[in-house]
Specification:
By secondary structure, the chain is mainly α. The protein is built from seven helices and no strands.
């Protein structure tokens, strides 16, 4: 497991990696991945720099959780690097070709991943890789009947 179950520890990883990068420190491979995601999200950078780990991001606050969003980016990138579930890389390549922006294609995958994780949590079950991949294929216009 890349991250522990402690929310504050996870959030500190983001702020520490970002601070280290800004100071020109040598980054671990994981910190470098985190920094890359933060760089791609300028809307979160000042938040990461000033954020307390105790900030809540429930629906009642009316804002999305930047840590969740960036964590989903990291998860999708890991899935693409390992092609797991099998076939995800092909679907992503198709989405990326159809999009002018590969980051936008990645966001499409994020939506499907978040939905799959939400379904698993709601059903108190493991995520369904087959259903997740099917959602991705439908998104890419390759849905099976």
């Amino acid at each position: 497991m890349i991250f522990g179950q402690d929310r504050d520890e996870l959030r500190r990883m983001y702020s520490d990696a970002w601070a280290d990068a800004k100071q020109g420190a040598v980054l671990t491979p994981l910190a470098a991945q985190i920094v890359k995601v933060i760089e791609e999200h300028p809307e979160y950078q000042s938040f990461i720099e000033r954020s307390s780990t105790e900030v809540e991001f429930g629906p009642e606050q009316g804002q999305s959780n930047p840590y969740l969003h960036m964590g989903l980016h990291l998860a999708v990138r890991e899935q693409l690097a390992t092609n797991r579930p099998a076939g995800i890389r092909e679907v992503f390549d198709q989405l990326a070709k159809a999009s002018v922006d590969p980051h936008a294609a990645e966001h499409a995958l994020l939506e499907c991943l978040a939905e799959s994780l939400w379904d698993a949590q709601r059903n108190q079950a493991l995520p369904d890789d087959a259903r997740y991949l099917e959602r991705l294929r439908q998104l890419a216009g390759r849905g099976r009947s």
